Amino acid sequence: MTRFVARTFVAAVLLGVTGIAAAQDSAQAVLDRVVENLRGVSQWATLQLTVERPQSTTEYVMEIVTDGDKRSLARVTAPPRDAGQAFLSVDTNLLIYNPRLGRSLRLPPSGRSNAFLGSDLSYDDLAGEEYRDQYDASVADRSATAITLDLTPHPEAPTPYGKLEFRVQPGTYAPLSLTFFDQRGNAVKRMSFAEFKQVDGRTVPERFEVVDLLKDGYRTVASWTQVDYHTPVPDRCFTEAALERGCR
Amino acid sequence: MTPAVTPAPPRPRRAHDLASLTRLAWRNLWRQRRRTLLLVVVVAYATLAIVFFWGFTDGFLDSVMNAQGRLVAAPVLISSEVYHHDPDPSNGLSGLAALEALALADPQVGAVAPRIDFGALLRSPYTTEGVMARGIDPAREGRVSDLPSRVSQGRMLQGPGEIVLGKGLAERLDVRLGERLAVDVSALAGPQALGLRLVGLIDAGTPVIDDSTALIDLADARTLTGVAGATGLALDVPLGQEAAAAQAINERLPDGIRAYAVGDLLGALQRGLAAERIQMIPMGLLFSLFAAVAVTTTVVVSVLERIREFGVIVSLGLDQASLAWLVTFESVFATALGWLVGLAAGYGLLWIFSATNALGALMIHTYGDIVQGLALTDQIYASVRLEYALFASVTIAFAALFSALAPARRVRRLNPAEAMRAQ
Amino acid sequence: MPLAVLSLAWRNLWRQRRRSLTSLGAVALVVCLSMLYYSIGGAAVNSMYSNLTEAGGQIQIHVPGYRDLRDFSAGLIRNAAQVEAAARADAGSGVVVGALDVPGLLIHGDRSRAVALSGRQWPDALRESYLRQNPLEGRFVRAGDEAGIVLGRGLATALDVGIGGQVMMYAPGTEGYGAGSYTVTGLVDVLDPSYASRTALISLAAAQTLAAPDAVSRVEVHFPSIRRVQDDSASLEAARRLQRAVPELSVETWRELSPMLVRILDSLRPVMAVVSVIFFILAGLLVVNSIYLGMIERIREFGVLMSLGASGRRVMGLITLESVLLCSAGALVGTAVGLPLVALMARGFTVPGLEQYYASFGMDPVFYASIHPSEVAFAIAFALGTGVLAALWPASLASRLEPVEAMRFTA
């Protein structure tokens, strides 16, 4: 599920970039490669989502199945209190199932800004919106370990951030970290990527962390385990029936 | 020394008919200027007190309501009835042009401004706040709302791409002038978002406004909500005329659409103010009682003080019955005169305080922070309504009637000899 | 000498019984009515106070910094039962109520609305005053009922559901089941239109099951028996005790909780100030008229006195003494009548004929008068002062006339 986030959000950001740098390996070229890496792959996976807060830490375990493009299904298997909940995302529609309700319901637009399972992500992050032509990219730094891109949103872009700093691994163009800056030059949030795997010539992160740099102790970590890229994903996995019962 | 009731004189001289008694009474009033003046002053003041009491308290509460109304809502707002009970953008208005024309046709309405009120999420890099935002037409909003005049930093918005926030809200979001905010709305068209630049901060001196106001351009609001028209049409109506104008317009509005006066738009505040108004009723009754008592005692005392004089008059030949009428007429005339003077002075005072802002300056001076907390600044007006004359008249008439009875009776049984020796 | 003058003054007064009684009556009346005026003003303030504290109680307990918290979990008081017990121990006569607000989505069919579901306890006194202000159709919230919900009519219309219908509540990010299904048992006509489309009530138990077992958002302490602002100190003391009992939580009084409503209460003060000026001018006029008119008549008498050898100053002195005696007696009588009246009204009075009118505004039609000692003192001092001054003016007039002119004086 969170790769879906990474894919949609980050890729959406990047796809919207209009970058120009005359140098070889221009910003645009770099971004194109990263987008490739982040493009979704059809898969079955187990996702461990750890939501850390000062008073407590909650660990969710979810079974994910996605077609890598616009559809995905996530079913919570742990902790017991939340087990049985399921989320189905098809295009921009989001359906929720809660065993207490005994039925599924479509999350109306007004509910979409709620935090997903109380984490640092929202449903809107999950559904993803492609904001084209919203950012300008430039290469800020190049070293042996990382290429750093500065993404500056256009004045009217629907984002409160002043700048995004995107660090990318040279050569593989695997994403390393995405840091969100406010409009005063302070870093406020950081997404980092780790545990890279090679899949079909792409370097894909299987661990993804979001840290709130303003609030101590606020962190969300997602890591994929038991990822199966090869078993095909049938269409029936993205129906309401699958919400309630799964589709293995 | 009780005055004995004399046997009826052999032939009472009833040469005076009521008409001449009337004239005599009138002249008598002017003969005893000091006494008359006192009576007139008391009655006039009693009348004035009642009129002014109601005019002032009504006016003060109206001023508070209006001040809040012009900041939070509008003098009159046209919206669909469904929207009034369920303020969701899906219940918006269409056919705006026709409605605007209809509203402007009313002579009370000076201007019209469309609005879209909608729930939105404001996102800064640090936090998120849910608010009820308002899309306005910057060119026209100033006529129906005082908000544009309360911009304390920066400026009012002038077109799309800009946003103005209440000072407290901007602080909570930690966004500064010139910075960009993301505005998320999940409405008819599905999730929409815009990036808007903060151009102005509003400081109305009261948290109700400063912590919850977000103004954007109407075009941006339409983009965000998917509403093609508006959720409400705000009307500019003179102070005090809101209810009347709303009623007049309602008669011409199509079914399902209503005009709401500011009193119906304010929620909890309206309840608080209505409560204040009716809590003044016992006070008003006390005032009327007091005024009646004042008038009565003054009349009674002024008559009783003249007992010696009456003794002389009766011994000179005027019969007691005629004297009683004379005394009664004098009281009635003096009271009526006082009542007229009181009405004129009372309404005159109210008119002055309704047309100018003298009260406001006085209030600010003594109760500055209270007044400011109600977002009144210095605009406090008195209310001028005919019903105050009714309250005053009923009171005074009652008092006059009562006060005429007792002395008249005393005079009727007058024993001249005893009277002339009275102290 | 003083005793002789005193007894002379006293005898003078009773020589002119009617005039003296009239003047005394005027002073007594003014004192009595002034006290009534202040007590009614106090009643208005008390009524406002009741209005403001009825809904949320005089005291509320929250987690510290609750106003700035975004996180549902961070804003919870977790060991609710314990905190409520501690509150009950220190609250004296206060009624302790736990409340849990659950933000989320209320859904019926394909309609939904964002609401803050209010789960709370409803002791009798509070239920009565709530239903007085917000008329109910159907059945109200019952303690321990896990399945019933009461909706504001506006919300029910928006969701297109009626009594007997089923609604679902989706509350993500909370700590209980996070979702629940409820049957609408009642609809309330919410007095305040801005809450009409947002009111949804369930029992505290149901809210806890849904979102936060054994936790509450706040603890309210109500003092329904405190009806007068001047008795509010009992709640202030209780607040202090409570803060000591639960130092890790934030205990706030009603003034700290809703500054806006306190402003409305305070707004009565400028109104009352202006009204007081109007009132006391009227009172002054009444006293002056009664006493002045009487004195004017006696100028002839003063003339006689002066022609017999009394100096102007002696006459003035005599008059002053008489006036002080008379007005004091009047003030005494006025207080003797006024204070018991106020005490009677302090037990509760209504405006006959207007009870329905008040009820339609959701207000308690019973008023509770109260008066402050300083107001009693002012009423007496004002009447006394005005009365004495009113007598002195004609007296000084007389003392400056030639005795012969004085004896021939006519008003």
Tell me what the structure shows.
The complex is a heterotrimer of chains A (248), B (423) and C (411). Chain A is mostly beta strands. Chain A has one domain: Lipoprotein localisation LolA/LolB/LppX (outer membrane lipoprotein receptor (LolB), chain A, Clam), CATH 2.50.20. Chain A has helices spanning 2-15, 27-38, 123-127, 240-245, and strands spanning 43-52, 57-66, 71-78, 86-90, 93-98, 103-106, 135-142, 147-153, 163-168, 175-181, 187-199, 202-212, 219-228. In chain A, strands 6-5-4-3-2-1-13-12-11-10-9-8-7 form a 13-stranded antiparallel β-sheet. The longest helix of chain A is centred in the first third of the chain and has 14 residues, at 2-15. Chain A is globular. The two termini of chain A are 17 Å apart. The model of chain A is unreliable at 1-8, 11-24 and 126-132 (pLDDT under 50). Chain B is of the alpha+beta class and 423 residues long. Chain B has 2 domains: 18-66 and 275-420, no CATH class; 74-265, no CATH class. Chain B is built from 17 helices and 10 strands. Chain B has helices at residues 18-31, 33-72, 81-85, 96-105, 138-144, 167-173, 207-210, 218-225, 242-250, 262-265, 268-279, 281-304, 307-315, 320-355, 358-373, 387-412, 416-420; strands spanning 76-80, 111-123, 128-136, 151-154, 162-166, 180-187, 190-202, 214-217, 232-236, 257-261. In chain B, β6 (180-187) and β7 (190-202) form a beta hairpin. The mean pLDDT of chain B is 82. Chain C has 2 domains: 2-51 and 266-407, no CATH class; 59-225, no CATH class. In chain C, a hairpin with a 2-residue loop joins β2 (95-108) and β3 (111-120). In chain C, α11 (268-297) packs parallel to α15 (373-399) and α13 packs antiparallel against α15 (373-399). The model of chain C has no long low-confidence stretch (mean pLDDT 84). The interface between B and C is large, with 69 and 71 residues.
